[in-house]
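Exam revision sheet. Question 4 asks you to relate a sequence to its structure. Input first:
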Amino acid sequence: MACGIFSGKPVDILVRLGNKFVAEAKRILYGEVGINVFSGPSEILVIADETAYPDIVASELVGHAEHGYDSPAVLISTSEDLARKVMNKVPEVIAAWPAHEGLIT
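Answer key, structure tokens:
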């Protein structure tokens, strides 16, 4: 993208959180294109009660955990029922996640 892969023109700014590889790519490109922030692994903490949607909670947890082993995803809930539904939903979300060549197997 910094070289204009899609449009023939470089992008103005790269914006994305991600894993250590995203952080390294931004470091390498710093000065050639704008970057929003040097970020490393991310973490997420969801605090939810019985009114939360298990599908959404599971998707948020998986979306952050996919950055790597050093990106923890934690759910704290006042509802055991919700927590169990989310735990059951996580494998379904992972299975439905689009596989990227060499990243998810």
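Marking note for examiners. Helices lie at 20-29, 54-65, 80-96.
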